[in-house]
TrEMBL record:
Signal peptide interval: 1-29
Organism taxonomic ancestry: Bacteria, Pseudomonadati, Bacteroidota, Bacteroidia, Marinilabiliales
Organism for this UniProt entry: Marinifilum breve
Alphabetized UniProt keyword annotations: Signal
Protein name in UniProt: Fibronectin type-III domain-containing protein
Length: 370
């Protein structure tokens, strides 16, 4: 981790300490004050360590995030989806500044000496040859809004004159300070491109050609790694996991021809579709331009859970004429998306549901002329 600002700060603090020691008579035999790192200096915050080495899938160098709870419980966070494992293990701080971390997710107990250069925002751990040295920081401003999500998509596509179910990947990486983003799979990798979502926020997604690379069979559980380079030049690696959960496909018979009112004032579109056979499914609808540009939707509806009805519907309405970016006579498309959240995600609590989707099924059809 480059963190030049921390290095400069550490040097300044060290220099200040040396000058203070000299001015207080340190050179004339005064005793150096004993260093003690308190549990309260560790708790109630997340600590981040960046062991990044390269872009290889097999390299174990994803961002390491710990939280030391006051009761001795260790929390390890999957940073890409902000998901906490509250049962990751335990920790203990001894009076001699020895920090013992029992991380059950990696199956070992490690002991570190907390270096006296540590502070409330920079934790310097010395572990020797056996476990190495680590630098943890409690403030990573450039990653404050970062998220990354890997999703499997099931679609009905035309192949050799017949409609068949096929699968593809969908990836979304978000963050204000990203200069490059990449997806790394065990057997392949994809460069992501900058696009915009319906809220006009930057999202890194697959190129259109890569987004249409289908495969025949659901692969089940799969580990996905993300590489990002920030504007600062710092490089990080994160991971997400596609779970072994398939989804039913929406098809041409599932989505009715959209209805929309016409005129010179604000317009609306009503979209109806048949619910998939999964009570845990959620839905949203998008309006796309005449090129069916999925990376830059014109408008995206709010999400909604499945109702008890066989047919679901969403009505999208302009607040003012022209809000959707369509002129009278323009051809447009509608996209209906059914999706499942990752296990344990509660969409009505917090906001991490936005970037913890597991599987999607979608269908795009013409909406006619606006």
């Amino acid at each position: 981790m480059k963190h030049s600002i921390y290095k400069k700060l550490s040097f300044a603090l060290a220099l200040f300490g040396a000058l203070s020691l000299f001015s207080c008579g340190g050179s004339s035999g005064g005793e150096e004050e004993e260093f003690e790192f308190k549990p309260s200096d560790l708790t109630n915050k997340y600590w981040y360590a960046n062991p990044y080495r390269n872009q290889n899938f097999s390299t174990d160098d994803v961002l390491l995030v710990y939280k030391f709870n006051g009761n001795g419980d260790l929390v390890r966070q999957e940073f890409s989806g902000r998901r906490d494992n509250n049962e990751a293990g335990t920790w203990k701080l001894s009076e001699d500044n020895t920090l013992t971390i029992n991380d059950k997710t990696i199956g070992n107990v490690r002991e570190y000496t907390i270096d006296k250069s540590s502070s409330g925002t920079h934790l310097v751990l010395r572990g020797g040859v056996a476990v190495g040295n680590w630098d943890f920081y409690s403030d990573l401003t450039e990653l404050k809004d970062f998220t990354a999500d890997a999703t499997i998509v099931k679609e009905v596509v035309l192949s050799n004159g017949s409609f068949v179910n096929k699968y593809r990947y969908d990836f979304e990486v978000k963050g204000e300070f990203i200069s490059q983003a990449k997806v790394i799979l065990e057997s392949n990798s994809f460069e992501l491109v900058k696009s915009a979502n319906a809220d006009d926020k930057v999202v890194w997604r697959l190129k259109e050609a890569d987004a249409k690379k289908y495969f025949e069979t659901f692969k089940g559980e799969e580990l996905v790694k993300f590489y990002v380079k920030m504007n600062s030049g710092d490089e990080y690696k994160f991971e997400d996991r596609i779970e072994n959960v398939d989804i039913e496909a929406l098809n041409v018979e599932s989505v009715k021809n959209p209805e929309h009112n016409t005129g010179t004032g604000p317009l609306s579109v009503t979209v109806e579709w048949k619910a998939i056979d999964n009570a845990s499914a959620y839905y949203y609808v998008q309006i796309l331009n005449s090129n069916k540009d999925e990376n830059n939707p014109l408008v995206t509806s709010n999400w909604q859970p499945a109702s008890n009805e066989d047919w679901q519907s969403i009505k999208l309405e302009e607040g003012n004429a022209g809000d959707f970016g369509l002129n009278l006579g323009d051809v447009f498309y509608v996209k209906v998306v059914a999706y499942l959240y990752e296990e344990g995600i509660e969409p009505y609590q917090g906001d991490i549901h936005d970037f913890n989707k597991q599987a999607k099924s979608q269908y795009i059809r013409s909406g006619g002329e606006w």
